[in-house]
Amino acid sequence: MGNQFDTNELTAVLLDENSRVTLRELCQACALTAEQVTALMDEGVVEAQQVSGTLYFSGVCVRKVHRMVRLEQDLGVNHAGAALALELLEEIEQLRARIRRLERH
């Protein structure tokens, strides 16, 4: 009897703020439709750059969309609530980073 990895492929990609993914890749990574991602763009949650007719998203956007999906699925939060929670989580992360920098001096 083989293990679960015999038939399933596991892939991980590290993304940072300089990484770029297409709309299709973002949809695959976050299990969303293009329409759902477009709605997030319309709401100002994520921004894309268009190059030669193709939309590109930063690695930060992938993380943001993934977190939003998790908030909606795991906690039952709606788009507006998830967007607010994301904004507050980002602010907390920035404040913690600032505290770490101040503590080093």
TrEMBL record:
Entry superkingdom: Bacteria
Pfam families linked: MerR_2
Protein's name in the database: MerR family transcriptional regulator
Organism in which the protein naturally occurs: Microbulbifer harenosus
Lineage summary: Bacteria, Pseudomonadati, Pseudomonadota, Gammaproteobacteria, Cellvibrionales
